[in-house]
């Protein structure tokens, strides 16, 4: 039993073997086809003409994903580490709607959750550079969370004040029949969306609207600057230099140098000894 579990683990979680590569490629194709079926089934004409085929395909994909999910839980040393992980939760949520549809016919609508499995394509392809950049973005967002919170709090106050002013200036005759509706208009205008369902009619109201539009261009750029600054700071702290090839763009979480192949554990020990 132990040998079987190890063999399954190498195929499912490993990418350095032929079986692992074949499994990853097959899984990627199945994920893309299942998401494509969900998208096509949402089109009325396709659902009317090919709805039965989509339903059969849905069950085939569900059975395959169920087998994959059970095999992952079976072969991993600590099942809870996968079950409660990000991808484990997505895999579980992708299975639930089809089975619930047996009891509640309308529940099959939630099969759209399966679209989230597209995120696994990044994991299947093992795109290290993309995963590394995603980790860098996550750390930058976490490092700048307080600044972003202060910015959002300031933004909420701005739209409440501007919405209240427009309610007093325009009134019900122009469509500003309540403060919440006026706040909605302020948000739409500040984000430069401009649906046009509500618009100021007075000269002073149009003047305020023009100011809000100009403010929108500058305010939208603020969180971008905050996160970009944090990304530069985080990137500098997460890069180390390879002592073999002197490349200074190596990730601190990498196991091997992506240029010369030297073991990064040895480099980290060298850095700690030098300090």
Rounded to an integer, what's the Rg over CA atoms? 26 Å
Q: Which overall shape is indicated by the principal axes computed on the Cα atoms?
A: flat
The CATH architecture category of the largest domain equals: Up-down Bundle
The major β-sheet equals: 2 strands, antiparallel
Annotation field: number of helices = 11
Query: Helix coverage percent of residues?
Result: over 70%
Please tell me the overall pLDDT: 76
The structural class is: mainly alpha
Distance between the termini: 47 Å
pLDDT < 50 runs, ≥5 residues: 123-129
Content of β-strand? under 5%
Please explain how this structure is put together.
The chain has three domains: 125 residues, Up-down Bundle (Four Helix Bundle (Hemerythrin (Met), subunit A)), CATH 1.20.120; 98 residues, Helix Hairpins; 36 residues, no CATH class. It is built from eleven helices and two strands, in the order ααααααααααββα.
């Amino acid at each position: 039993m132990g040998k079987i579990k190890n063999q399954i683990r190498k195929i499912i979680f490993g990418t350095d073997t032929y079986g692992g590569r074949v499994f990853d490629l097959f899984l990627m194709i199945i994920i893309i086809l299942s998401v494509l079926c969900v998208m096509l089934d949402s089109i009325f004409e396709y659902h009317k003409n090919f709805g039965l085929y989509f339903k059969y395909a849905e069950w085939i994909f569900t059975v395959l994903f169920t087998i994959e999910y059970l095999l992952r839980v079976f072969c991993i040393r600590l099942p809870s580490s996968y079950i409660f992980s990000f991808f484990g939760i997505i895999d579980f949520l992708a299975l639930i709607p089809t089975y619930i549809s047996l009891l509640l016919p309308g529940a099959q609508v939630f099969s759209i959750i399966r679209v989230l499995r597209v995120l696994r394509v990044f994991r299947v392809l093992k795109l290290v550079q993309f995963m590394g950049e995603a980790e860098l973005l996550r750390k930058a967002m976490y490092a700048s969370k307080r600044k972003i919170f202060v910015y959002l709090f300031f933004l909420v106050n701005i739209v409440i004040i501007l919405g209240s002013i427009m309610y007093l200036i325009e009134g019900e005759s122009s469509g500003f029949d309540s403060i919440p509706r006026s706040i909605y208009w302020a948000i739409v205008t500040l984000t430069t969306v401009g649906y046009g369902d509500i618009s100021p009619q007075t000269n002073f109201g149009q003047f305020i609207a023009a100011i809000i539009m100009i403010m929108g261009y500058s305010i939208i750029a603020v969180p971008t600057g905050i996160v970009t600054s944090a990304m530069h700071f985080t990137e500098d702290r997460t890069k180390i230099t390879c002592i073999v090839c002197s490349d200074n763009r190596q990730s601190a979480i990498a196991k091997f140098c992506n240029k010369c192949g030297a073991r990064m554990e040895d480099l980290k020990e060298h850095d700690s000894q030098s300090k």
